[in-house]
């Protein structure tokens, strides 16, 4: 006590020294919080000028590990890659400030080597602090990682996934030292992949979604034998390698299809609810928390091959919804949140297809129409020759006839444009985004800062297991029982590698994209998997970090000097980073830009919590608006370019209020979900028509078809068939049906025309329908039978009650028909469009121009 008092007396005698020490302490505090930034405070926010370079260019520079000090490489032993192909899905990287010094640090996951945490020293220098931080996670196959404030104490904790090791939680002491939680409630035995966090139930805590795959699969055992039998008329697997299929490891794992194929399912994903103190409770799939498309509670958890998941507010109600990317034959899951943490599957017709091998997903308003769109990556090659060698392990499945509410999987990337009414329109081919090689993670990032977000895609694979030639060779040997395990491993090594160039697609602003990877410095070949975004040098743009398989980690410095506004959020505990908040910038490079603050959600990875917007010029007067997950709202007026703004939820307006501002009194946050009155009314019941279509498997004849060509739907036309002054409705039929004619009664009703000449059963699919004075002309397609006998156009004469083939059969399958007086002789000539040559797609077919000579159609020219 005496020493303590003596110390106080010494300080009292030295006020100047005390003042100096106080100044030094405050200066160090500001430096620690902002890494050298000079903050200016205002009600509800603070801002700082950004050190934006005067010179620059659009794109990235890859920095060497010898310069940065990051010498990490994600290593995978060759033997392990062959005996457990699940390991080929790689590992990720997480970004965040773990020690509170204002600089973003990096955490890399490894497979056959420990994980590594690198502290950012500034000036693109990093030091390995893994040992002192206690986060090496040695001895496990680490996959995904996220830095997030789990316990609401203001610092970033660490979540790590592993194949066979489930999920682990490491709590941060605020100085970058971590202690593993022993009572987190997280499952430690699953084949866990990516993670995403959000406040799903509105209680302020960050809940956790874990996408699970499997630690290993039966396909990696060439000698596996299944035994099955019929149980109540259904084929059922009863034993695996002479072990009962009722064992816990096999329960609900395998299904025997009617064709004799064995389907292996993945493990259920897990949604954990966070109590705010670092403890999680798994939410049940079957207690009413998850409903199917019809609102019926699930009776079993989905057992999918989960690779990635992201929380994002799809319906703009302020609550985080979930998109889950699933591999193989298991469908993607889109769960819509009711705001209280209960989820219902997206309506069947809201999304018409998904990718087959969905690897990763990201969201952005790509056309700045105010609605969030999304992009999912698959494995389609950009090289035409490779596409015909890389054939899916899953054979294309013909769509069942008449089921319009199914959601087929397609072997390509998938861009879905939000229509604003709860439904989405696929625009992948239109946008030029269908292929990006064996892809892993898409990220929307406005690289050129023009106000439209571009797309970065990582890709590559150690071995091209889609190579159908090698796959067929191995399968034939295995089926013949002539393949020992050493021979099998030797053959697996023969698969070619897929070291591919990463891709950037520039957003043109009109829903189309152009490839800019090489021009923008992001085309380094490799096997690039987990990727995250972070401002590593504090200049307000986002740099890119990539975890490469069997290659050095990639740090890509963003070289842009275009004006920008960076936004961070300081949320109220326990959601201290404002996760789930939506941010708008008004008056920048485009009238309105919007982004959402996410946590995790990248393929095996997680960004640092900062968002960047394009300002367009240095002089624009702008406004930032934020809708927090709590419903509170913030507005910052007079926003200037090249500044970092940090908004505080504590200073936000209460929920259900409009933020007030003297400068912009009419400021309102954009809203959607407004009720739109339909222009048309569905009156299909007036005719009660049911289209007839016989099943046909296009892929049996041509397995490499990109899509089915046999089910385009019926041709439809209007024509006054009975000459009563009212146009009647004509609908073509599929093979085995009849041409349908509905007579218009002139009072809003229709009656089917029974009897000749429309009672004849057609032997081919009908295409276009035309009405003429000489009768109804209907196209007849030979695509399914491929024969040239029989006509390609049939004429129905209602007055004579007869029908007959009019134009002789052709090699091509007839498609569109058109009438016009081409030669000016007063008679309508006929064009018959050739759509496809049966069994010879994509070989081009010709078409016909038939001249009308006194009612007879004569082939005048082949086109």
Structure notes:
The chain has 863 residues and is mainly beta. Among the domains are: 215-265, no CATH class; 564-654, Immunoglobulin-like; 684-862, no CATH class. It is 9% helix and 35% strand. The protein contains ten helices and 60 strands. A hairpin with an 8-residue loop joins strand 50 and strand 51. The protein starts with a helix and ends with a strand. Residues 1-33 and 659-674 have low confidence and may be disordered.
DSSP strand count:
60
- Put simply, the count of helices is 10
| Portion in strands | 35-45%
Report helical residue fraction: under 10%
Mean pLDDT: 91
Tell me the strand order in the biggest sheet.
Answer: 1-2-48-41-45
Shape call: globular
Gyration radius from CA atoms, angstroms: 32 Å
Main β sheet profile: 5 strands, mixed
Low-confidence stretches: 1-33, 659-674
Q: Termini, distance in Å?
A: 105 Å
Class per helix and strand makeup: mainly beta
Q: In a few lines, what is going on in this structure?
A:
The protein has 863 residues and is mainly beta. It is built from 10 helices and 60 strands.
């Amino acid at each position: 006590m005496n020493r303590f008092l003596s110390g106080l007396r010494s300080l009292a005698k030295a006020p100047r020294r005390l003042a100096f020490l106080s100044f030094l302490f405050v200066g160090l505090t500001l430096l620690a919080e902002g890494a050298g930034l000079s903050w200016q405070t205002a009600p509800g926010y603070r801002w700082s000028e950004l050190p934006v370079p005067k010179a620059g260019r659009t794109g990235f520079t890859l920095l060497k590990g010898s310069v940065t000090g990051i010498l990490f490489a994600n290593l995978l032993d060759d033997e392990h890659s062959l005996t457990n192909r699940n390991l080929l899905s790689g590992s990720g990287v997480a970004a965040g400030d773990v020690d509170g010094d204002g600089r973003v640090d990096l955490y890399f996951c490894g497979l056959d080597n420990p994980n590594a945490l690198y502290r950012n020293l500034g000036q693109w220098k990093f030091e390995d602090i893994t040992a002192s931080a206690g986060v090496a996670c040695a001895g496990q196959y680490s996959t995904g990682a996220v830095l997030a404030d789990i316990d609401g104490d203001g610092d970033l904790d660490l979540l790590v996934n592993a194949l066979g090791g489930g999920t682990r939680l490491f709590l941060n002491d605020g100085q970058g030292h971590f202690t593993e939680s022993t009572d987190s409630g997280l499952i430690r035995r699953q084949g866990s992949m990516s993670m995403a966090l959000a406040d799903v139930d509105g209680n302020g805590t960050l809940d956790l979604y874990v996408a699970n795959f499997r630690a290993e699969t039966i396909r990696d055992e060439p000698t596996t034998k299944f035994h099955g039998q019929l149980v109540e008329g259904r084929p059922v697997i009863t034993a695996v390698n002479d072990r009962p299929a009722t064992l816990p490891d096999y329960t609900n794992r395998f299904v025997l299809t009617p064709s004799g194929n064995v389907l292996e399912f993945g493990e259920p994903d897990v949604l954990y609810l966070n109590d705010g103190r670092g403890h999680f409770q798994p939410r049940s799939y079957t207690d009413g928390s998850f409903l199917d498309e019809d609102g019926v509670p699930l009776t079993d958890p989905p057992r999918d091959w989960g690779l990635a998941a992201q929380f994002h507010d799809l319906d703009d109600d302020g609550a985080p919804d979930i998109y889950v990317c699933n591999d193989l034959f298991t469908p993607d899951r889109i769960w819509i949140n009711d705001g209280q943490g209960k989820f219902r599957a997206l309506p069947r017709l809201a999304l018409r297809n998904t990718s087959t091998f969905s690897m990763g997903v990201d969201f952005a308003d790509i056309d700045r129409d105010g609605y969030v769109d999304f992009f999912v990556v698959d494995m389609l090659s950009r090289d035409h020759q490779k596409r015909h060698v890389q054939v899916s392990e899953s054979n294309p499945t013909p769509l069942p006839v008449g089921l319009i509410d199914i959601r087929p999987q397609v072997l390509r990337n998938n861009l879905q444009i939000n229509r604003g009414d709860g439904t989405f329109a696929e625009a992948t081919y239109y946008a030029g985004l269908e292929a990006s090689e064996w892809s892993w993670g898409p990220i929307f990032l406005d690289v050129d800062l023009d106000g439209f977000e571009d797309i970065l895609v990582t890709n590559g694979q150690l071995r091209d297991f889609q190579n159908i030639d090698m796959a067929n060779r191995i399968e034939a040997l295995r089926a013949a029982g002539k393949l020992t395990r050493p021979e099998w491993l030797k053959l697996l090594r023969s698969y070619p590698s897929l070291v591919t160039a990463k891709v950037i697609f520039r957003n043109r602003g009109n829903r189309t994209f152009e490839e800019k990877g090489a021009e923008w410095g992001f085309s380094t070949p490799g096997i690039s998997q987990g990727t995250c975004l972070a401002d590593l040098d504090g200049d307000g743009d986002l740099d890119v970090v990539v975890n490469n398989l069997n290659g050095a980690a990639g740090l890509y410095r963003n070289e842009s000097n275009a004006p920008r506004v960076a936004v961070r959020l300081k949320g109220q505990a326990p959601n201290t980073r404002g996760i789930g908040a939506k941010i708008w910038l008004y008056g920048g490079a485009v009238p309105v830009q919007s982004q959402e603050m996410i946590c995790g959600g990248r393929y095996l990875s997680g960004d640092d919590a900062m968002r960047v917007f394009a300002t367009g010029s240095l002089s624009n007067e702008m406004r930032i608006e934020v809708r927090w997950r709590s419903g509170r709202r913030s507005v910052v007026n007079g926003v200037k370019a090249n500044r970092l703004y940090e908004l505080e939820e504590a200073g936000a307006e209460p929920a259900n209020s409009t933020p007030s501002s003297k400068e912009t009194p009419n400021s309102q946050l954009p809203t959607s979900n407004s009720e739109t009155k339909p222009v048309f009314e569905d009156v299909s019941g007036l005719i009660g028509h049911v289209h007839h279509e016989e099943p046909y498997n296009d892929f049996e004849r041509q397995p490499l078809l990109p899509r089915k060509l046999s089910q385009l739907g019926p041709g439809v036309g209007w024509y006054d068939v009975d000459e009563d002054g009212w146009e009647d409705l004509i609908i073509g039929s599929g093979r085995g049906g009849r041409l349908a004619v509905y007579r218009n009664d002139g009072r809003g009703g229709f009656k089917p025309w029974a009897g000749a000449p429309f009672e004849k059963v057609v032997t081919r699919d009908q295409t276009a329908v035309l009405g003429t004075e000489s009768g109804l002309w209907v196209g007849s397609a030979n695509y399914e039978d491929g024969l040239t006998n029989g006509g390609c156009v049939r004429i129905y004469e209602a007055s004579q009650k007869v029908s007959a083939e009019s134009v002789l059969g052709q090699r091509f399958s007839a498609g569109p028909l058109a009438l016009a007086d081409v030669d000016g002789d007063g008679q309508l000539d006929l064009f018959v469009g050739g759509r496809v040559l049966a069994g010879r797609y994509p070989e081009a077919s010709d078409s016909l121009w038939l001249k009308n000579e006194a009612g007879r159609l004569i082939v005048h020219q082949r086109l």
